[in-house]
Amino acid sequence: MSTSLPARFRGIAIKPLLTEVEVMNLLKVSRPKLRELVCDNRLRAVEFMGHHKYLRQNVVDFLEGSAPTDEVKRELRMFTRQKQTRNSPASTPKESILRELLKRFGANWVLIGNAPATLKEYDRHLRHLLDLTSKPTLLEVEKWLANEPSMTVRRMKGRAVRSFGRWMSENGVEHFGWWEQVPLAKEVEREQPTVSAEDYAQLASRELPPVVRLIVELLWSTGMRRSELARVRVTNVDLEKGTVLVEKSKTDEPRLTPLTDEAIGLLKRHLSNHTDPSLVGLTSQSIRKILRRHGIASAHCFRRGWTVDSFRRGMNQVDVETAAGWSSGTMVRRYTRKFRNQVAIENFRKKRSSSTFSTPPEI
């Protein structure tokens, strides 16, 4: 059986049927390399037909050293996709509906103000699930989750299916009716490295380059994420009010974050001869490398330390969540898990050191 190509391709369509071994000999590559080329779309001319031992060669022109033009490549890719669509089983209506519903789920997620970064992970996992099975059942989802070695990723996949199922249920869609039965993996709570006030004091006493000193002070002062600090512009800083405007965060919501007096002092000196529109003039990856090069903890360690230190200074949870840009208290609880009891005792000692209650004087 030969493959019928449009007339403009017939001049380069030769040797209509080659075995896998013949193609390997022609290209002088091993079987794994051949499969890699096929998967990498660099061998668009070769497509598997029927039994895996046989390959149908539509075009061998460029395999023998004469590469077709980009225009011909584009048209060949279009022809290949059309042919594969005709030869492959038709997508089931349910599969098409689920993929359409997934798009609506994503649009709704953004409209109600949920975190785009979370949606990106959910969408990636759900698409992978729909690629594996067009009609996911609870059993198939459980097997899919069980095959994931990472407990963290397994939990994220389970949350993705649950969120998608909950959204469909709330909108009267009769798919994923079993979503509430999807198990969520329990993450092992690991101790997360956190910068303490003592660590910050040691860094403050070290001789560091001015830009590194500024980065350390801003991380400890504001609790910003590394990517947020990299995006801060000079115009976002208000030294009179002692604030920095974070225009874009993980939740896509702008927020103001506070500056300490030490940070304001460093910023005044920094901005006196700074001409770059970017406040620190570094990318997120550059900040990471600079901190590592000087043996300093990561930006996220500072963010955890900022959270703990804020509670120790008497800030309430709502204030900390707002300044940090969190939409819920989940991250606060995670970051302060190790120090929660210690902070609570310190606050009690400050505010309830006496066994008797003293009424504040009337004004």
In short:
This protein has 363 residues and is mainly alpha-helical.
Topology (elements, then pairings):
Elements (H helix, E strand, L loop, with lengths): L16 E3 H8 L3 H9 L6 E3 L5 E4 L12 H18 L5 H19 L4 H17 L5 H9 L4 H20 L26 H8 L5 H13 L3 H6 L5 E2 L4 E4 L8 E4 L2 H11 L12 H10 L5 H14 L4 H8 L5 H6 L4 H12 L12
Antiparallel strand pairs: 1-3, 2-3, 4-5, 5-6
Helix pairs in contact: 4-5, 5-7, 9-11, 9-13
Would you give an account of this structure?
The chain is mainly α. It folds into three domains: 7-87, no CATH class; 93-181, DNA polymerase, domain 1; 197-351, hpI Integrase, Chain A. 52% of the residues lie in helices and 6% in strands. It has helices at residues 20-27, 31-39, 70-87, 93-111, 116-132, 138-146, 151-170, 197-204, 210-222, 226-231, 261-271, 284-293, 299-312, 317-324, 330-335, 340-351, and strands at 17-19, 46-48, 54-57, 237-238, 243-246, 255-258. The strands form two sheets. The protein has a three-stranded antiparallel beta sheet with strand order 1-3-2. A three-stranded antiparallel beta sheet has the order 4-5-6. A hairpin with a 4-residue loop joins strand 4 and strand 5. Helix 4 (93-111) packs antiparallel against helix 5, helix 5 (116-132) crosses helix 7 and helix 9 (210-222) packs across helix 13. The longest helix is centred in the middle third of the chain and has 20 residues, at 151-170. The N and C termini lie far apart (99 Å). Mean pLDDT is 76; it is low at 1-18, 39-68 and 89-94.
